[in-house]
Amino acid sequence: MSDLNPILSGSVQSIAAYQEAIEQSTQAVVQWLKQPEMYQGKTVAELRERINLEFTAQGLGNQAAIERAVEYFLKDSLSVHHPQCVAHLHCPSLVISQAAEVLINATNQSMDSWDQSPSATIIEIKLIEWLREQVGYTAGDAGVFTSGGTQSNLMGLMLARDAFFARQGHSVQQHGLTGNLSKIKVLCSENAHFSVQKNMALMGLGYQSVTLVKTDQFSRMDLNDLKEKLAQAKANGEQVMAIVATAGTTDAGAIDPLADIAALAAEEQIWVHVDAAWGGALLLSEKYRHFLNGLELADSVTLDFHKQFFQTISCGAFLLKDARHYQLMRYQAAYLNSDFDEEQGVPNLVSKSLQTTRRFDALKLWMGLEALGKKQYAEIIDNGVTLAQQVAQFVVEQPQLELVMHPQLASVLFRFRPENGDTAGVALLNQRIGDALLASGAANVGVTEADGVTCLKLTLLNPVVCLEDVKVLLASVIACGQQLHNA
Fold this sequence. Notes:
Layout: H1 12-33, H2 44-50, H3 62-72, H4 95-107, H5 118-135, E1 143-146, H6 149-166, H7 172-175, E2 184-189, H8 195-202, E3 210-213, H9 223-235, E4 239-246, H10 258-268, E5 271-276, E6 300-304, E7 316-320, H11 339-343, H12 362-396, E8 401-405, E9 411-416, H13 423-440, E10 446-450, E11 453-459, H14 467-486
Parallel strand pairs: 2-3, 2-4, 4-5, 5-6
Antiparallel strand pairs: 1-7, 6-7, 8-9, 9-11, 10-11
């Protein structure tokens, strides 16, 4: 076999190749981090024309392959750490998270069985125990790390579905879906994550199974409408399988009234899943932890750490209140999680996950918590929420800008509003502002809708960004808006 691109191993040759490749890549990243632009500004068409694959018979070798990756990927990547990059729930990462990735990638542990990831398995279990404690669950380890919110939400809905059928004496796991499926419903707010619909379709119940509950002026689930929707379902002979509450909607950062929703669900024995992919960061907050009151009442919870926990993608978790419900998805394979292993107390995490082969992403959170400590972690999480409130006040003071909704987490919804603009024209103008800023490479500002109003969005996750940085960005928005409006 050619030694051009050796496998990572303990040989002298392999270690030398590894060090050279990592050093070359690290130096390239250092230079990229120093570039002042947020983005080089290439269009879809330009990138399609520019990027070509070079799969030769003999191969290019490590050095040349890295050089090409730097040229065609790294240089044209979005600088998510840039203070003007604020469009999405797309965070800059902790330095310690980058270090964790080196350890994760080099060891290549697989989290499906203990004999493929011995220390990693124990670390993940202990982290799940700790996360349950933060939520307010009883002691235990019912939960698992996931690829992110969509997968965690799928686990919550799948277990809710199977628990629903189990109460009627039917096993979905053994016999599949049965009965009039059109009568089974899931309730969530109008602003819940799209993965609710996506996952219900994946589970064979379709978009039609999702009933949307109205929201209030702050994008939170309206309790009165929830009560009406529950009553309507009963009157129609429908059965509500689950209520999905949101702790941190994508745009507004709205947190539904968790305790009240849980109380209503308890009356009807309805599973409550809380999508806290964003708002779950407040578990560590010193100022805003109370926003999550009632989270401990949920049957299952989604958490994401590649949002306001500042971990590299991907890193999420699913927590299950009652460990007994894991029996609903339990499957044993002799080559992974045998009866013998279980009798001996061997923890094979494949029993808790939708994935089989799975990265040791939990290491990133563990190292982050140990490196920063809970107090510093709380400070950088709280910074975004506080900054959003400061930015909102500044927006109110600008005659050319209009605050669309008061911030609840670390996002600000606003729009450029010329004096003589009609509604349709203002909507298109704000869309064009977002597009123009990205095309120029100057900034990445979100464009979305809030209650039918097209607006711009700042998602202020970056803990090193301050109010002055945002003022610079808003000045760019105003200048761009005026130029486009006057053109």
